[in-house]
Amino acid sequence: MNLVLVPNPILRKKCTAVDMTNAKELKTIKSKASTMLKIMYKNHGCGLAAPQVGIDKRFFVVDLEYKEDDSSTRNPIILINPEIVETFGEYLEAAEGCLSLPGVMIPVKRKEHVILNGYDVDGSLLTVEAYDFDARCFQHEHDHLEGITLFEKVDPLMRVSYLQEYEAALKAGAKPGVYE
Which pLDDT tens digit goes with each residue over 92-116? Predict the structure, then answer.
């Protein structure tokens, strides 16, 4: 399992729901999520969605407490078939990076508060409520499941500029998790 980068077509595809009644599929998701967490930590990410590793399924992993200088601080969340129930608060703009878009940071407006429902790997319903940076991370990963990359979050004229910046970063050897 490897990270896939824009323009891989899987990143623009709405992902297929996980069959929560299929124990074999849930076991496979649990194994893949474990590998995804390793990839995410290795690349200094806070979240990673299934399509970012070439998997057409609706799940992602996040760890909002992970700190590079303290690998013992880990609190991963695996969210299967997540749905945004509600967003509220102000729209806040902040630069976002993405493991599938190495070398660029793109300003994105997102709501400051989000509530999601989804399932854990054991099939139990989860409700996640997040604010500020955490809300941004969950919305970003959810976008991936909808086939939305950061490029779709900006004005079309700016998109051209960011695409050129991305292509230049790739040519210069940009790696996931490094934004300079």
Answer: 999 999 999 999 999 999 999 999 9
Bridge partners of 129, per DSSP, are 115
Question: Listing from the earlier edge strand, what are the strands of the sheet with 59-62?
Answer: 47-49, 59-62, 77-96, 106-119, 125-131
- Tell me if 92 sits within 8 A of 109, measured CB to CB: yes
Tokens at residue 51, please? 């399509």
DSSP for 51-107? GGGT--BSEEEE-SS-BTTBTT----EEEEEEEEEEEEEEEEEEEE--TTSTT--EE
pTM, whole model, 2 decimals? 0.92
The set of catalytic residues is: 141
- Count each helix (H run) and each strand (E run) in the chain, helices first: 3, 5
pLDDT tens profile 14-27: 999 999 999 999 99
CB 169 within 8 A of CB 176: no
